[in-house]
Amino acid sequence: MKKIALVVHEDAVLSSISCVLDLFAGTNQILTAAGKPAAFEVELVGEKSDNIRLEGHTQLVALKTFDEVNDTDLIIATAFLGDVENLLAKNQAAIGWIKEMSGKGVEVASLCVGSYFLAEAGLLSGKTCTSHWMAIDDMKKRYPDAQVLSDMVLTDHEGVYTSGGAFSSLNLILYLIEKFCGRAICIPVSKMFSIDMDRVSQAHFAVFKGQRRHEDEVILKAQTYIEQNYHTQISIDQVADQTHMSKRNFIRRFKSATQNTPLEYIQRVKIESAKKALESSSQDIANVMYDSGYNDMKTFRGVFKRITGLTPQDYRKKYSRSGAIAA
User: Fold this and answer.
1) In the sheet that 64-65 helps form, which strands lie side by side, from edge to edge?
2) What is the pLDDT of residues 240-294, one digit of tens each?
3) Which of 41, 88, 152, 172 has the fewest CB atoms below 10 angstroms from its CB?
4) What is the model's pTM?
């Protein structure tokens, strides 16, 4: 039986705890109904054993404190809502315990932004990982040694597991159930909870708002220029001219400030415009393409799918009202 320690910390999201408990309990139920032994024993573990205040003022009682758990197979760091700096400051005990247990060979996992706990413990250095898409840029800046992937629903790197945003965590738990119990058990669990199996990308959920959390006024002006002219055949040379820098220096400085190359930024602005049109209008795909600044359908489809993980047609079916009704 796998022993799992689910970390309950200040400002944890309740659903990040309850959904995990439900999935592992459902797996045990399916196993025992088939005459097999239960596979998982889940413990709620916290710095203290009572009155742990979760996000939304809910309080929870942990079964054990960190000091009481010396033997477990997997630690899962749950998600949170709130200011990252404040959250990390008041959960140093959890971070230290995760680091200590990992040093003893215990595998670790994170749900959504629980990845900050693993990163602070130094466990993501040199590892591929993911997190909620809204946290990706911040994590890349805070933890440059981590290989933070923006579009992945989950990662598995040498005993360190991470998941994408919010309920993408369920896909990581399904992955762990399949890894520990086999696909024959995972399939009925996914059906019991109506969760799609084998989902690998969270890219189509992302909303591009522009990486403006920097103080480089010249690059901010360049970003504004791109956002006001994306519908034209805008070029990097054209944007660089606006900054009165050489193309080479402009590209370097733009990447340093935004974490995107100018070309990536232009493409993301164009595709964000296309996404909004597909969500809210009945324009045909060709007109959406032209309005987004593309004039070649093959190029448009290729860039759109690379950024969102879906074709324009599939994106419309998934996210537009008319597409949903037609489907």
Assistant:
1) 64-65, 40-46, 2-7, 74-77, 107-110, 160-163, 154-157
2) 999 999 999 999 999 998 888 999 999 999 998 999 899 888 899 999 999 999 9
3) 41
4) 0.66
